[in-house]
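We append the chain.
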Amino acid sequence: MKSMSNVDIYTISDELNRLLSGARVDKSFQPTKDIVVMRFHVPGTGRIDLVMQCGSRIHTSQYPLENPVTPPTFPMLLRKRIKGAHVESIKQHNFDRVVEIKVKKDKYYTIIVELFDKGNIILLDDENNIILPLKRKRLSDRDISSKKEYAFPEERGINPINVTEDELKNLFNETDSDIVRTLAMNGLGSLYAEEIIFRTNEKIDLDKNTPTSQLSDSQISEIYASLKELFDDLKEGNIKPQIVKNGAKEDVVALDLVSYDDFEKTYYTNFNEACDEFYSKKVNTNIKDIKEAAWNKKVNKFEKRLRLQQETLDNFAKTIEDSQHKGEVIYSNYTTIENIVNVVNSARGKDYSFKEIGKTLKNAKKEGMEEAQIFESIDKMGVLTLNIDSATLVIDPKLTIPENAEVYYEKAKKAKRKTKGALIAIENTKKQLENIKAKKDDAMERISVPKKREKKNLKWYEKLRWFLTSDNVLVVGGRDANSNESIVKKYLEPNDIYLHADIHGASSTAIKLNGKKLNDNILKESGEFAASFSSAWSMGFTSQDVFWVHPDQVSKTPEAGEFLAKGSFVIRGHRNFIRGARVKLAIGIVDHEGKRIMVGPIDALEAHCDNYVVLKPGFTKKEAIAKKILSKINEDDLLTLDDIIRVLPSGKCDIDEEYHQRKKYEKIQS
């Protein structure tokens, strides 16, 4: 896959600096060994994911990558050190393939993204010392290890953005190489080196293979003019981000290039978007190939086991048939075999060695003695090998003929006994193989096509916690201190009802009656909603008391000498309590002003949709439980994993399997 050029990085860095300056750093992830994703929150825009791949690329992305359940060490350290920090600047270092992301939290930190060679991502402290690199490296001139001072790679080449004509002349005077190679190896890369020659050839006739030492001053001036023409657009931000394609060849560039005049072009609003479309699908394809290879390895393991087991079973069948046949041959040639055995035993009685006996029998066979025709060999222990009716028999003269036959019959019986075990083993392996193939198909289907994360136009209540009661009354709640503040100041009207769980750390909740009468059912469901979206959930409670009051009892004015934190309110007058409100929620897709995801009390979900999942406080992390929920309710492919995660309560969850089993039983009985 193409690595970003110095020119690409210049353009990306400029866009990222304008986009992310002032943004808050959120979580970091590591989907693969060389890809790190940093998530940012940009005021007025929301979530922005920045993908950094060692030695390859850096850009924002709308294509979420699947993350491991347990985050590796590097992203965990980024979360610990810089989550909550704000971006100060993002810049390219010396027109090199290195990006510096400077952030400030308790102190300054710098994330270095190296995009040359195999690349690296490194976290530095405020004194430029390495806290942790993604990859530890020891080179002749650089030691990329923890607690070492970070050293940038040696500066080389030219910066085409601000290079002067004299600097270009000096560069050409210092080498005996040809023009295109000199430009390419000094920071421009082959694409832009060729582009400069193309543009120069529109004005003068110039062979790109001309040694730089043979260039005249006028030729150098024309080369410099072409270089300035190309990079002045970049410097002034007059870019035209595009993906170009011609047959199998495809590229992403920030400028219109003469080199790509004959290519099909798709333009984008910014270079980050173009890079996202160019790289993300290729990376997802690569990840798919890697995962498919891993699954194939598992499948091959069971296929190999099945093949060996089948071969063993076939061998058992062959052994049974062969051994039974040999036993029958012994009995059908009883006299003939007995005669040759008697000869051997008689000779041994006269102190002949087995070697001498064998030699005698071979001579007798050559001379045409009928009894000796079945003889093949005799070993040093006296065991005979005979050939009768195309069957090779091993006969022990110390045993009787029936005993020799029984040896073969016993071998057949033993193979029969083993056949039963082999058949059971084969059936087990077949089931395991089918199971692993089904898992592979399911996993490959989920990653086969990368899904672009589209920003949805949310209704005002979807930006809050919300649900519709079974009486079709809208209930909204705050997601954090800011939205708790909004619930009271912006959304709570005189005829509404205010609820709050009787515990520290809870959502401010408003029942939007809109002229409807308050009843016990509305209070019950709203109480469960308020109880569940409180710290009672993360504490693992099964029930929680909730109080409710009228809007005029809710005040932001504290008592004299007291202070109210953001999202906190003073409640004056009598409080009405809903005792022991159930801490349990259901999640499903409802049709309210269009289809959308809703989380609320079980009764509300039962009233508004057929397919829903009941959740209770538990032990499963959000991402893992969200995947299970998505597979159960996302029938029309309306939701993404992020949609599920966004609406879940704070804390871990489990699916209430007992509830679903009971419902399934009740449905069968009815």
